[in-house]
Request: fold
Amino acid sequence: MFEPAATGFLTGFSLILAIGPQNAFVLRQGLLRQHIFAVCLLYAVSDAILIIVGVIGFGAIVSLWPKLPMIMAIGGAIFLFFYGLNRFVAAWRGDYDLVLSGTSSGFAATLTTAAAITLLNPHVYLDTIGLIGAVSTNYPLTDAKTLFAAGAVTSSFVFFFGLGYGARLLAPVMQSARSWRVLDTVIGLVMWAIALQLLQGLGH
Reply:
């Protein structure tokens, strides 16, 4: 029974490994060393819930609300565009005195942004509910399906907490405003690229 759990872990880990808005946000908070546990827990628990929904069955949800994927894509693209713009503006201004002193947004503001990044990102639903849910159909037995889901959920916890707390290894490199300007520019580009992909997907 080890095989379903291992497959679930590797499937989840491989999907989450690609850089995206969640990963970029966790990395930034990890470098700031602010609200890391809360942000990582939020993302890991969100993934866990969506993975369980996917394993149970996402097809039924879409059949009830066929326009749901389109609405999610538009909302997600709008949010990612403005968040990316925010990072570009920060990079352009180059005012990182608070960041270099280890100060970030407040707890509530940080969690609100983190929640929006995951809830308004259709790729999260595609990966967790769609793809992981589809792979889970290879395990018709309840026990094997449960182990598969447990493996996938574990991968999210391992990845996000590893990224959040492992980011401090980059701290020596991030001691200048220029380094943070480069990071914010990269994050902005990632956000805009994903937003563009979401809008392009509406035409298919």
The mean pLDDT is 80. Residues 198 and 204 are 11 Å apart (CA to CA). Residues 2-199 form one domain.
